[in-house]
Amino acid sequence: MFEKIKRDLEKYEGLSYLVDDIYLHKNEFKDLYKYGMVLLGPDSFIQGEALSIIDFFRQKRFDLVSVKFKVLNRTQVEHLFLPTSSCIKCGDLKWWMIQDSADQGMFCGVLFFCDDASEEVNCLNKLNMYKGRSNPLDNASGVVRYDFSAINVCLNLIHVPDTYGDFFKDTSPFYGIGELAEITRLKKNDCYMEENYEFQIKLHENVNKYSFEILLYKVKYYLICLITNKCNHELNSTYYQNQYNIIVNLATREEKNNYVKKNITKEMNMLNNAEDVLLTKLRNDYDKKNIGIILDDLNVLRLLKIFTYPLNYKQYNRDIFNELRVYGIRISDFEKLILNTSLIQWK
């Protein structure tokens, strides 16, 4: 196993120092295949799911061994998620998305023991079976990224290493090699006081859960309330309020997502019609005091289009959020991250 771990770690920049430490303790890691790690990201705390996720794995017959909390800097996050220190693109996932998600708060490294794991099907293999695919919408019930409040490819609650080289890489911000060697020597029931970790998680967990679809209609509702001119009898705050209430009450993530997609064409047509009405008013209205109001309404419609048509999500930037702030619409840093990263799921 050591040679494979060595090969895995040598792929990564700045982590070769771990190889020598592992070699010194390699005899103590003879049962390493029975141990695994789950990394809980800041979004698992923000969504109020961290404790429930740990309980989920315990119900799947993984014994809790240890829990550690840490706020990671960007370099540490870089080592966790990227094969090199360069800024690269992981499919549709941009490096800045990982960086910005790291700034949202606490990470948690959770070690589990699996008594029925074998060298052929090790603990990491078993943990990954319950993790789910990166995109929450690609999963079915029975995995963390479906059963809990995963938002998108970037904000999907947890990470589980694929190999034991990655295991040592991913545990390195939380555990030293000597500490891991000591943990694997302990009996599975002697490792952690549960009240401690439960209390610490409750200190960091949020009670509200975020959803991209719900957040989208929240912003659109606030925007439509800003329009002064009646430019479309269907386009009003009541419409967006009704859509918001429908989405909140839909049972599954797929239903929410499909409902939002179904509304795109209808809402873009409504916005285009409203824009035509305002442009006609602008051409025909010679009262200068109304021109400013009309221009302001047109700008609000432009923002509504950006939050309605998926291809426009690529326009999300600091200027867009500054405009919302000017209009009195305040959204949190985490909500900005949800909006910025969700474009990768809307092909």
Mind explaining what this structure looks like?
The chain has helices at 2-9, 17-24, 42-46, 50-59, 74-81, 95-102, 123-129, 144-147, 164-171, 177-185, 194-204, 212-224, 237-249, 253-284, 288-306, 318-326, 333-341, and strands at 35-40, 63-70, 89-90, 93-94, 107-113, 158-159. With 347 residues, it is an alpha+beta fold. The protein folds into two domains: 2-204, Nucleoside diphosphate kinase-like domain (Alpha-Beta Plaits, 2-Layer Sandwich), CATH 3.30.70.141; 212-345, no CATH class. The strands form two sheets. A four-stranded antiparallel sheet has the order 2-5-1-6, with helices on both faces. It has a two-stranded antiparallel sheet with strand order 3-4. The longest helix is centred in the C-terminal third of the chain and has 32 residues, at 253-284. The radius of gyration is 24 Å and the shape is elongated.
Entry keywords:
347 residues; four-stranded antiparallel sheet; alpha+beta
- Determine the mean pLDDT: 84
- CATH H-level superfamily title of the largest domain: Nucleoside diphosphate kinase-like domain
The neighbouring-strand order within the major sheet is 2-5-1-6
Helix content: 40-55%
* CATH domain class name of the largest domain: Alpha Beta
Distance between the termini: 41 Å
Are there runs of 5+ residues with pLDDT below 50, and where? 84-91
Largest sheet: 4 strands, antiparallel
Spell the H/E element sequence: HHEHHEHEEHEHHEHHHHHHHHH
Kindly provide the radius of gyration, computed on alpha-carbon positions and rounded to a whole number of angstroms.
24 Å
Strand count: 6
Shape: elongated
H/I helix tally: 17
Do you know the CATH architecture of the largest domain?
2-Layer Sandwich
Q: What fold name stands as the CATH topology of the largest domain?
A: Alpha-Beta Plaits
Beta percentage is 5-15%
Number of structurally distinct domains: 2
Structural class: alpha+beta
